[in-house]
Amino acid sequence: PYLMGRLNFGGRNYTSGSISALAYWGNDTALVGPDPVDWFRTGVAWNLKYKVFDFYGALIWDKISGLSAGIQPFFDDNAFGATIEADFLATSHILFSFRYDQLNAGGFLGQRENAKVITAQIRYYPRDNLAFYLRDSHNIEEVSLNPLQNFRNFITLGADVDF
Fold first, then answer.
1. Among 96, 125, 138, 158, which residue carries the largest CB count within 10 Å?
2. Are 81 and 109 a contacting pair, CB within 8 Å?
3. Nearest to residue 99, comparing CAs of 55, 133, 63?
4. How many CB atoms lie within 10 A of CB 103?
5. How far apart are CA 115 and CA 154, in angstroms?
6. The model scores a pTM over 0.90
């Protein structure tokens, strides 16, 4: 089962927002080693808009249960993720964004890696459904071979099209 609730607020004086919460649980939804495990996820998310500013974030917690006794000493059954972002509409065509992401991974103790990334972005909108962007994501953690950490700075140039 998956449950979600959302509360919208504001709509006056150039202010609006929402708060959401979710819960998900499932039996035998993943395999850890040869054994199926149960997964429980909870989270909250929020959004606040004020004039040309847009702030939002999310927190997600995961808990795995049903691990076999032989795997339990070598496996972290908890994980946590967080993100927070602020957007600023500088003109009718230019948007600046600043974001922080954190992942405290679960999993096999010898394989898991945590990640912390700060991202700055500028987006140019020549039309409502088209954006060009330049983004720099900076890894705060130690650089490693893990895909979550195998960069110091990751610079991206791209385009988004909305149909």
1. 125
2. no
3. 55
4. 19
5. 14
6. no
Categorize the per-residue pLDDT at 151 as very low, low, confident or very high, splitting at 50, 70 and 90.
confident
Integer Cα distance of 67 and 78 in angstroms: 12
Q: Which two tokens stand for residue 16?
A: 């609006």
3-state secondary structure the chain: CEEEEEEEEEEECCEEEEEEEEEEEEEEEEEECCEEEEEEEEEEEEEEEECCEEEEEEEEEEEEECCCCCCHHHEECEEEEEEEEEEEECCCCEEEEEEEEEEECCEECCCCCCEEEEEEEEEEEEECCEEEEEEEEEECCCCCCCCCCCCCEEEEEEEEECC
Distance (Å, rounded) from C-alpha 84 to C-alpha 160? 21
The radius of gyration of the chain's CA atoms, rounded to the nearest angstrom, is 19
Give the max Cα distance, the chain: 59
Each residue of 57-82: pLDDT tens digit?
A: 999 999 999 998 889 999 999 999 99
Q: Hey, what are 94's tokens?
A: 């230019």
